[in-house]
Design a protein that fits this description.
By secondary structure, the protein is α/β, with parallel strands linked by helices. The protein contains 10 helices and 10 strands. The protein has a 6-stranded mixed beta sheet with strand order 6-7-8-3-9-10, sandwiched between helices. A 4-stranded antiparallel beta sheet has the order 2-1-4-5. The longest helix is centred in the C-terminal third of the chain and has 15 residues. The two termini are about 30 Å apart.
Length: about 240
């Protein structure tokens, strides 16, 4: 479904990703693991077209997306839940959800079905449709951000640090939703620092260090991989020494 081949990318000439190779198959749940600054978010931005790679190729369902603009990539069936949720605080819950289906807005039947589906998945949002986004709790905002992404009917859902800033009980709820097979036709790519919870719901994983995948394989094998512990331990030692990412 999705394949990144030898992708190098960064910002203002600096290199963050250094030859990344990554695959997400149909109905896969894939984890991108690693600490801060290792390239997880940059990978997401490259996939969505928000960051143009210096070199390499991004393929999705047989189509080369490497130079395709973000709105057209979204139209191909890729949706992202960004780090920090980034809902529109002054808009209502309903307006936030409707923005998620903007590219399909002329198909009123599709929009209506998508809304019904999202409210079935997250029934609490149905009781808050007229509330402004700013009035929601962090957990409710995360559900809204996921619901907004689902409104477009994506085939690939990207989630960037979905547990960030949430209380443990809310994190458990978010991951319970992601673990459920509510849509067997959807593939999911999750960038996370919560290693154990992420590997419990994913079937495959990549461990990033210094802009490249240093470990890759089935989730149950990555859990006990020395490379996983080395990647996190190496970053911790760098921080303790006063290093930068």
């Amino acid at each position: 479904m999705l394949e990144l081949t030898d992708v190098t990318a960064g910002y203002d000439g600096s290199v963050v990703l250094n030859g990344v190779n990554l695959k997400v198959g149909a109905r896969d749940k894939v984890a991108l693991l690693g600490g801060n600054g290792v390239g997880k978010t940059t990978t997401m931005l490259v996939i969505t077209g928000l960051l143009r790679p210096y070199s390499g190729r991004v393929m999705f369902e047989g189509h080369d997306l490497t130079k395709v603009p973000p709105h057209k990539i979204a139209g191909c069936g890729i949706a992202m839940v960004p780090e920090g949720r980034r809902i529109f605080p002054a808009m209502t819950v309903l307006e936030n959800l409707q923005i998620g289906s903007y590219l399909r807005r002329k198909d009123t039947g599709f929009v209506s079905r998508s809304l019904d589906r999202v409210l079935t998945i997250f029934p609490g949002l149905g009781q808050q449709l007229s509330q402004r986004g700013a009035t929601l709790s962090g957990g409710q905002q995360q559900m809204l951000a996921v619901g907004r992404a689902l409104m477009s009917g994506p085939r690939l859902l990207l989630l960037d640090e979905p547990s960030l800033g949430l209380a443990p009980i809310i994190v458990a709820e978010v991951f319970k939703f992601l673990e459920s097979n509510w849509d067997e036709n959807l593939s999911i790519l999750i960038a996370e620092q919560n290693v154990q919870m992420t590997l419990q719901i994913c079937n495959h994983g990549y461990v990033f260090q210094r802009g490249r995948a240093v470990v890759e394989g089935p989730a149950d094998k990555i859990k006990d991989s020395p490379g996983l512990h080395t990647a996190y331990l190496g970053q911790r030692r760098q921080k303790e020494a006063g290093g930068t990412q």
